[in-house]
Amino acid sequence: MTSPVLTAVHSPDGSTIAVETIGSGTPVILIGGAFNDRSTVAALASTLAPHVTAVSYDRRGRGGSSDVRGDYAVQSEIDDLAAVIEHVGGVAHVFGHSSGAALALEGVLHGLPIDKVAVYEMPAVVDGNRAEPPTDVFDRLVARLGCGDYDGAAELFLTEQVGVPASIVADMRHAPVWEFLCAQANSLPYDVAVSGSQMRLQSDRYATITIPALVVNGDQTWPWIQTANQALATAIPNARRVVLPGADHEILHQPELLEPLLLDFFG
């Protein structure tokens, strides 16, 4: 198998987006969620690469990608995805993880040339499965980042947007991963924005999706995520839903669980 090829594409606002490709065949774009960059989807890309062209990229404000506008607008990320699709041939399949799943679906809803879309554990509030995040999380994140408080921004996102207990976040602060999380914190308002107002499931919008869709979650993940993805699969006409045994939200560390499912779906 060939080595990954790293290049840069330009979004309409002038931001530079770092794109990595490996393999050959049909392009499958892999979009990570919050706190993820192309390095966190590299294992999945390598796993898929013998069969497809696996494409990973740093969402704006992360890793090797810049953010010229810095407006935290969903449209900016849609423009970035469009530029990546154009770079790999003008049409692609797309896989999104967590908030990356929400971005993948936004790309579909905005008419980007996506043939098939697969999503893994998109976070959403539906039917009282969990409390809605506070309405001011976005503004407080932007304020903390404006002060250079990346540590505080990471904590705020985890506790109030995701719902991780404060005690667990306190333990995470002492783990080696915390430095990596803080390095990605500058882009967290994008994750909040793409998930929509208080993360409510937008069933009426998803009901307009007509391309083949695959909705996946693990059976070891949070119960509220399982409920959300069941509702998402119901909202998208003709979507196929799969519950992966032994999997949780950290699926990117277990690419072998996703490989047969994605290769079968993307053909």
Automatic annotation (TrEMBL):
Transmembrane segments: none
Gene3D superfamilies: alpha/beta hydrolase
InterPro entries with a match to the protein in the record: AB_hydrolase (IPR050471), AB_hydrolase_1 (IPR000073), AB_hydrolase_fold (IPR029058)
GO molecular function, one term: hydrolase activity
Keywords: Hydrolase
A Pfam family this chain is assigned to: Abhydrolase_6
AB hydrolase-1 domain ranges (all copies): 29-256
Protein name as it appears in the record: Alpha/beta fold hydrolase
Organism from which the protein derives: Nocardia aurantiaca
